[in-house]
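Input.
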Amino acid sequence: MTDAGLVVTAIGLVGAAAILTTFIANLAGRMSPQSRAYLLLNLLGGVLVAFNSIWFDAYPAFAINVVWATASIWGLYKLSRKTRGADAAVR
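Output.
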């Protein structure tokens, strides 16, 4: 494996660790799936694993991680709308 391949493998492992960390933290009751941290870590993980997958021509893994990252973006969008709505109600 080339040096670039090793770096991309490390990037994919960091992404997988981010996704697994949020999953385990949620199961342990330490992180809500509606929290910004949960969604951001899932977004980061999805993007990093998608990058790794496309580099190594793993198209099914690429596709699922693009969906994973997109779902995280959608969750962040919904969270921001909810937060803005709560801020407006307080004023």
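The two ends are 58 Å apart (CA to CA).
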